[in-house]
Amino acid sequence: MSDATLNSVTQDPDDFAVQIADQIKTFIVAVTEVSKADEPEKAVPVLLLQVSQLLLAGGRLGAYEDILPDERYEPDLDDEPDADGLRERFAELLEPIDVYSEVFDPYEPRKPPVPHRISDDLADLVTDLGHGLAHYEADRTAEAMWWWQFSYFSNWGSTASAALRALQSLIAHIRLNQPLQELDGLDTDQDPGDGDLAEEAGRVMAEEIAGPLGLRPVL
Predict the structure, then answer these.
(1) In a domain, 30, yes or no
(2) Is residue 218 part of a domain?
(3) pLDDT for 69-87, tens place per residue?
(4) Who's near 111: CB < 8 A, 6+ residues apart?
(5) Under the phi-then-psi rule, with left for phi > 0, alpha for psi from -120 to 50, and beta for the rest, what region is 65?
């Protein structure tokens, strides 16, 4: 392990908390501003950059030692973050490219891809991160750090990773001049646990996504 890597894992907890909090604040502010953009082509490159930087913070949290909160039970928050408005703005802004295909757990065998929405991902990220930020701004640093680390493993890490793959794919299609086909007829409200629906969604998405990439779907 290099000295730089070792230092990032064992650095002073207070300095580490300040750095993570700053990265999370930057992400929330930037994404909120991007949601006000007029055209997707202006928003997607910035979102790609912001989600990439957020995952750097997540990777640091994942590599850091286990963080324990000061109290056994989580203190109540006065105001829970509400990202519904953000979700709606992104759903409208990204409407032609919002839905994408994702495999929930790459280590769970023979699971078909299911439809996700970038707008849902971004709103969920802001909600998860904002929950921890509320603790941080109330001077409950240990609680905030525990929440960010725990939810990185349980939720927002996989959500950000999925969104990053979708955003990177969009940029790649644009730069490589590979047109996207519309993912018509997909319902992101369906239950992924419904075998028939999940299998059908996986088949349709694989066929529609494989075409522009010159791939043969295997299901």
Answers:
(1) yes
(2) no
(3) 777 777 666 666 678 999 9
(4) 103, 104, 105, 198
(5) beta
Question: Phi first, then psi: what are they for 86, rounded to 5°?
Answer: -60, -45
Asked if residue 219 is part of any domain, the answer here is no
The CATH number of whichever domain residue 180 belongs to comes to 1.20.120.1550
112/199 Cα distance (integer angstroms): 6
How many domains does the chain divide into?
1
The per-residue pLDDT for range 92-102, each reduced to its tens digit, is 999 888 999 88
Alpha-carbon span 165 to 118, nearest angstrom: 10
In this prediction, residue 143 has a pLDDT band, given cuts at 50, 70 and 90, of: very high
pLDDT at 2: 45
Residue 182 is part of which domain span? 3-68+76-213
| Whether the Cβ atoms of residue 20 and residue 8 lie closer than 8 Å to each other | no
Partners of residue 117 on adjacent β-strands: 99
In a domain? residue 177: yes
